[in-house]
Amino acid sequence: MKPIKVVGGPGIFKKVGNLGKAVTKHIANGMKQVPEEEYKKRLIVCSKCEFHKDMRCQHVSCGCFLSKKAWWESEKCPLKTEEFPEGKWPKLDIVSKPDEEKLFD
Known about the structure:
Blueprint: H1 12-28, H2 36-47, E1 52-53, E2 56-57, H3 66-69, H4 98-102
Antiparallel strand pairs: 1-2
């Protein structure tokens, strides 16, 4: 009996589907990117993850190139756990400016 070869990450069709969904969300979000500091935080989190390999997420629900995905504001880490119910990436700190607050008075 031959040993089973375990291949990391999702298959090619799943990767294409995941990429299509990510691109659609990115475009719908106005192609906004996170600030460089946020991008770096995301990559640090990914570098410590058990599914990180060669700047790619090998989780079955992802398979993305992190050097791109981590820039996109619309994207989240797919790994939801009890400790990280919304994924491992830190939440964006969106702070309104004083002038913007006046618009809602």
